[in-house]
Design goal:
Oligomer: single chain
Helix content: 25-40%
Radius of gyration: 21 Å
Structural class: alpha+beta
Number of helices: 7
Number of strands: 10
Largest sheet: 4 strands, antiparallel
Order of helices and strands: EEEEEEHHHEHEHEHEH
CATH architecture of the domain at 19-114: 2-Layer Sandwich
């Protein structure tokens, strides 16, 4: 049944929900980014229609209303029409869905789909997987156990990827090598006689490791039956992908424990109580 606007809506007041006027025309600036990765980060802060807190668009999900009045996630922030923004966590989206934030923000009757937070999670996960395909085509993604270990020796990774079904033995060897080269203690034991410390101002900070996709999920996006180990090179695609993983971390555990991004990258982390 369509949700009804609350009678106590503070329309026009300082706490009134805020919507945008829609994506800019091609070639124009605005609250939406136009990077190669089509990321919504950048631009002015937006007010969450559920919590009224202002955040960067990179930490939020944009929603629009379809022609038949259904609340629709706009993950890439490019769908036409007026949009409302919600903090990118399961808890806040469920809060918006159950407490009338959408009809209040859009000032009309709307239909909120059942399982809206699950829908957002699935769309974010699909977006992250698709971006890995983009990275592969650009030559920014290294695949395979031995190939990843070789890449780690040559240059600091932007992000390491370990499938959820990776064997403990192989995962330990990849992470052990990364820790030996980039970790704070270069005297740790390791099983690789060929490694050499890489000179870098960032030594002492471990590269982040994403461990939230299965080998089959990764393989489907990368044209293989399964992908267990991958390394994303530093660069614009890695930066955009880390931002999308930050939003996804509001819905599921993304990073291997102890291998989270260094700072500010844990966008929407479920460790933060945003309600």
């Amino acid at each position: 049944m369509p949700a009804q606007p609350d009678s106590d809506d503070a329309v026009g007041g300082i706490d009134a929900p805020e919507t945008d006027a829609g994506p800019p025309r091609a070639g124009k600036g605005g609250v939406f980014a136009s990077s190669k990765a089509d990321s919504p980060e950048g631009g002015p802060e937006r007010r969450c229609i559920a919590t009224m807190q202002r955040r960067s668009p990179a930490e939020m999900i944009r929603f629009v209303i379809s022609p038949d009045g259904v609340v629709t996630p706009d993950i890439a922030a490019r769908l036409p029409g007026r949009g409302g923004w919600v903090t990118a966590t399961r808890e806040v989206i469920e809060l918006a869905a159950t407490r009338g934030a959408f009809p209040r923000a859009f000032k009309r009757q709307v239909t909120v789909p059942t399982g809206l937070a699950d829908q957002v999670e699935a769309l974010l996960a699909r977006r992250c997987i698709d971006m890995l395909g983009m990275a592969k085509r650009a030559g920014d993604l290294v695949l395979g156990f031995e190939q990843v270990r070789e890449a780690i020796r040559e240059v600091r990774p932007g992000c390491l990827i370990a499938a959820t079904d990776a064997s403990e033995d192989q995962r330990s060897k990849v992470l052990g090598l990364a820790k030996a080269i980039y970790g704070p203690d270069l005297d740790d034991d390791h099983d690789d006689e060929a490694w050499e410390p890489v000179e870098s101002e960032e030594n002492g900070q471990l590269p982040p490791v994403a461990g939230c996709f299965s080998g089959v999920e990764l393989g489907m996006a990368l044209g293989r039956e399964r992908v267990i180990h991958a390394c994303l090179k530093l660069g614009p695609i890695a930066h955009a992908w880390m931002g999308e993983l930050g939003r996804l971390s509001g819905f599921r555990r993304v990073w291997l424990p102890g291998w989270e991004p260094a700072s500010g990258s844990k966008t929407g982390s479920r460790d933060e109580n945003t309600i």
